[in-house]
Design a protein that fits this description.
2 copies of one chain form a homodimer.
Chain A lengths: L1 E6 L10 H8 L3 E5 L10 H8 L4 E3 L1 H5 L3 H9 L2 E5 L7 H12 L3 E5 L4 H4 L14 E3 L11 H10 L4 E5 L1 E2 L5 H6 L8 E2 L2 H15 L9 E6 L7 E6 H5 L8 E5 L5 H8 L9 H10 L3
Parallel strand pairs in A: 1-4, 1-5, 2-3, 2-4, 6-7
Antiparallel strand pairs in A: 7-12, 8-9, 10-11, 10-12
């Protein structure tokens, strides 16, 4: 039978395509991958209500190790494997497709929007993006900064850089790692603010001038949803901006055309007046 | 009221999202942009049957010059503006959005898959693509080759290059240009074969070694549809491959990871035996 790899798009359950919904409703099993991305605020129950059938949740382990469960099932019955965004956003899904085909299971892919194309909403032209980078949460002992060279290369070539920000879902707690019990950390989604903190920390350490506090960039949140937020400002300004709920992404522009600038200017972030300015304004106003 | 910019995705009328369909069905006017891309083989009547209402066709002139007609209409009533792929694939749509917002019209964008993200289906990782290029039909007098430097830069940086191939829809005939009558050339869609011819011609002229006949690349056709075709082979091989109906695109890989290679190998093009080989095989077979 068929493994349908269905992209869910970026917003909520209504961002599935008609073709995708048909495949899901016709499938014997429906599996939702929920570790490379999520539909924030959308409970699986809302998907189940639309689909009219139960939805199994697959974490990383289930897809990368134990996925033979649903792959085996796809030998005898149609299985729908749901991915937020587009099915080919992550290597792990390309790998899943490859394993399925090697087992003789036919794979049908139903594409959808992903951050990789929806980011065009910020006004920067898609074809002028260079290599995209990922920024992970820094820890005391693990502060990978290989993205820095890529941003530098993109900026030197005049190309824009899409920064994909870390998502931590179903991470085992330290206790769980020690005891083998299934106990998970609460989910964490990197904000534009944290990404900028980390970027500026790396720039301070590396000092090769890939960017600076004054570098203008674009932060986006909940892209593709009616409540999306797009803000254009300097790294220093956006570090303090409130983008609201996840998911967030960041774009560091390269060379900007006049038209791109015109569009970004419509998203200009105006920082709230600082306390000192408030006080000064108060002192200047008549008694 | 609202201008809904609705992405239709890549395949047929069923690739619209539920959110998109709702916006279309609720709109007083539905306008289909049909010059930056098309759903090949899908007549507007099929869209009208699904939507339950008439669909107006907009050519370049209508969108870039005369679009105030439907933009004005969006002041007083909901208008759905349909774009094949994602609404932000082309500058012209970003411009339309900007003009609408300046007129005080609220714009809602409903994203969908586009070639920019669906191309991940070929096995090359999306985040490792550099700047995308466009290849236009060469004429006797107009053979623009600025894409060559971009391919060269991407290849030197180890990045993949997505080549978007020319689409000529509703082009006025020479006679029409002379007489002012509305007479159009039949639509033309560049094939992978023609793109490779032109690329190799430019390489021969420029000679900087951006690529060669032996360079392995990936041609894709009708991506995102059930009848899609993905073929991996050398430029010389794919120049003679039959990809079938439009739309076609081409990818010139940069540095390829082991995993990317593994996936592309599953799409390896096997050229049919040449006549000489056939004859040789015939001579060798027993009488």
């Amino acid at each position: 039978m068929v493994l349908h790899m269905v992209g869910l798009g970026l917003g909520d359950e209504r961002d599935v395509t008609l073709r995708g919904l048909e495949a899901i409703r016709g499938a014997a099993r429906v599996v939702l991958e929920q570790y490379t991305s999520v539909l924030p605020g959308v409970e699986p129950a809302r998907l189940e209500a639309l689909y009219g059938k139960p939805v199994e949740i697959a974490d990383r382990q289930a897809v990368e190790e134990g996925s033979e469960g649903f792959l085996e099932a796809a030998r005898d019955a149609d299985v729908a494997f749901l991915v937020v965004g587009d099915p080919f956003g992550a290597t792990t899904h390309v790998d899943l497709q490859l394993r399925a085909r090697r087992m003789g299971v036919r794979v049908e892919v139903i594409h959808n929007a992903s951050i990789m194309n929806a980011v065009g909403a910020c006004g920067l032209q898609l074809y002028r993006f260079g290599e995209a980078i990922s920024i992970v949460f820094f820890t005391e002992t693990w502060r990978p900064d290989s993205f820095y060279d890529k941003i530098l290369a993109n900026r030197r070539a005049g190309l824009h850089t899409l920064c994909l920000l870390d998502i931590r879902v179903k991470e085992l707690t330290v206790k769980a790692l020690c005891t083998g019990r299934k106990e998970y950390e609460p989910p964490r989604y990197m904000s534009v603010n944290v990404a900028l903190e980390q970027l500026l920390e790396v720039e301070a350490a590396r000092g090769e001038g890939a960017f600076a506090e004054e570098t203008m960039c674009v932060g986006v949140a909940r892209l593709g949803t009616p409540g999306q937020s797009i803000l254009y400002g300097s790294m220093a300004e956006l570090r303090g901006a409130d983008f609201g709920e996840p998911l967030h992404s960041l774009v560091i522009p390269g060379e900007v055309t006049e038209f791109e600038q015109e569009v970004m200017d419509t998203y200009r972030y105006v920082p709230p007046p600082s306390r000192e300015e408030d006080a000064a304004a108060g002192a200047e106003s008549p008694p």
